[in-house]
Design brief:
The protein has a domain of about 220 residues. It contains 20 helices and 2 strands. The protein has a two-stranded antiparallel sheet. Helix 1 packs antiparallel against helix 4, helix 11 packs antiparallel against helix 12 and helix 13 packs antiparallel against helix 18. The radius of gyration is 22 Å and the shape is globular.
């Protein structure tokens, strides 16, 4: 009897939801909540790793929930792309949970001012967020994908407004309004898709959409891409992000920066490759990638606060991920997948380190910081490594991903592709400038004499070790860059072939 891995697919959603329920029941016991969250996320990391092996070496995994036919029920599907996203998203969520718990160790039963970890609502909400992220990655139909987005929206609003300060509530309201708008666009698109094809199953849509008139296909594609582009913070729909993320507690900002926009990018990749293969709208996507990169990084170099600088670089590097999808060849798509894995890890790490800076010095304004390399050399090293990685310094993973994207643009060889190459090179140089500016002013120069550092508790191993864990995980993307890049390339080939995904859902032949 051949062992099957398909039964693992629902667990990445079910386990976090069960854990969320248990943490609600144990809300008065913070230590028990931490154990439940850690055990749950650790189990999901292991399951995701096993599914990555299975999808890369054996086949695409699929489950029909309730054993309903694909045309009538919910289908969960995990291929190489989904498995990669599950692994990296759960690893960073686990690191953020450990970081938050480390902040709470100083007062096990009292609310923290900034970390939010001991608040009874934090752990169940984080687990619901994890379940929502996993739902979007394994969904085999558009409506179930919409459900995952709404789980994210609910959980992220709660996390964003932890503490209930006026600034956080204002940012949370702005965030919700923008995401409700994108959800409205997405839900309307689902309605139009169903009206035109009679299904929302992704595999069946891959067969039916090509049979529609060209104008109908263009309308459906535009609406779906617009809804996902707002969630991914693609220019010009990116203005909400720098105002929303920096106000949240450091662990919340980290998990937001690492995951939420990448869910939009994942959806763009999935829909564009599976439902709308070909070069339709690729020119528009290339312009969007170029403007997202350049406008985002120009915003970053104009900022004086580390959180806002990182928020604008987050917007900017969304353009890199869109770059490979817009180019549309195997090289570009593989490079985009690798870069998404890299960026989730590195961006989360940088926001966690920024949280350590705030815990250590009471501010993240670079005009008030200085001398950190003398007072906290380990903290300085923890910032320097991912900052250089984000900038694309050889031979780190950021450099590997950018070289792959440049190669994809050169293979395309059009004037717009070369313009995109120039924009990506400029963005990389300005990213290096922004990170070097933070390093030289906040870490390297002498302390600011007229700024009195408030008395703060020393950093504990509970917050340092999870950050070190993510830094090491980020370096492993370089050490094992070759095998990981090969998996990303194979994922790109499968996405462009479409047959493995469709055959898993619809049977041999994929029809």
């Amino acid at each position: 009897m051949t062992f099957t891995y398909d039964f693992l697919v629902p667990l990445v959603v079910v386990l976090p939801l069960i854990g969320a329920g248990l943490t609600v029941v144990t809300g008065r016991h913070t230590r028990i909540q931490r154990y439940i969250s850690g055990t749950t996320l650790g189990a999901v990391v292991v399951i995701s790793g096993v599914m990555l092996y299975a999808t890369d070496q054996i086949r695409v995994l699929g489950v029909r929930v309730g054993n309903w036919p694909a045309s009538q029920g919910i289908v969960l599907v995990v291929d190489r792309l989904a498995a990669l996203m599950l692994v990296v998203s759960t690893v960073v969520t686990l690191a953020v949970m450990l970081y938050s718990s480390g902040q709470g160790r100083r007062s096990d039963d009292e609310d923290e001012q900034d970390g939010g970890a001991p608040l009874p609502i934090f752990h169940p909400t984080l687990l619901v967020l994890s379940a929502g992220v996993s739902t979007t990655f394994v969904s085999g139909d558009l409506f179930h994908l919409y459900v995952g987005f709404e789980m994210l929206l609910f959980a992220s609003f709660v996390l964003l407004t932890l503490g209930g300060t006026q600034e956080r509530v204002r940012a949370g309201v702005n965030y919700v309004i923008v995401n409700l708008l994108s959800s409205l666009v997405f839900l309307s698109a689902i309605g139009f898709v169903y009206a035109a094809t009679g299904t929302v199953n992704l595999a069946r849509l891959a067969n039916r959409i090509p049979e529609l008139p060209e104008s109908t296909q263009l309308m459906l594609q535009t609406m779906l891409l617009l809804g996902f582009a707002i969630k991914a913070a693609v220019f010009p729909m990116s203005g909400w992000l720098p105002d929303s993320y920096p106000t949240a507690p450091a662990p919340v900002t980290a998990v937001f920066a690492g995951l939420l926009t990448k869910v939009g990018i994942y959806s763009l990749i999935r829909v564009q490759t599976l439902l709308f293969p070909g070069d339709r709208l690729h020119t528009l996507l290339m312009w969007a990638a170029l403007l997202t990169m350049v406008v985002g990084i120009l915003g970053a170099v104009a900022q004086d606060d580390i959180k806002r600088i990182l928020s604008f670089t987050l917007v900017s590097h969304i353009g890199y991920m869109l770059f490979g999808l817009a180019v549309g060849n195997t090289t570009g798509l593989g490079a985009s997948i690798y870069y998404v894995v890299h960026h989730i890890t590195i961006q989360t790490t940088l926001f966690l380190v920024t949280g350590l800076v705030e815990l250590k010095r009471g501010t993240t304004s670079i005009s008030k910081l200085g001398g950190i390399i003398v007072t906290a050399p380990l903290l300085s090293l923890l910032f320097f490594v991912p900052a250089m990685n984000l900038s694309g310094i050889p031979p780190l993973s950021g450099f590997i991903g950018k070289v792959g994207l440049l190669q994809a643009g050169a293979e395309l060889g059009t004037p717009l592709a070369y313009t995109l190459l120039a924009g990506s090179a400029l963005t990389s140089l300005l990213t290096l400038y922004a990170m070097s500016r933070v390093w030289s002013r906040a870490f390297w120069r002498a302390p600011i004499e007229d700024y009195e550092t408030p008395r703060l508790a020393p950093l504990t191993p509970g917050v340092i070790l999870p950050t070190v864990m993510l830094v090491v995980f980020g370096l492993s993307l370089t050490v094992f860059g070759g095998p990981l890049y090969e998996i990303a390339d194979r994922a790109a080939i499968s996405l462009l072939e479409r047959t493995p995904y469709m055959a898993t859902v619809l049977g041999p032949g994929g029809r």
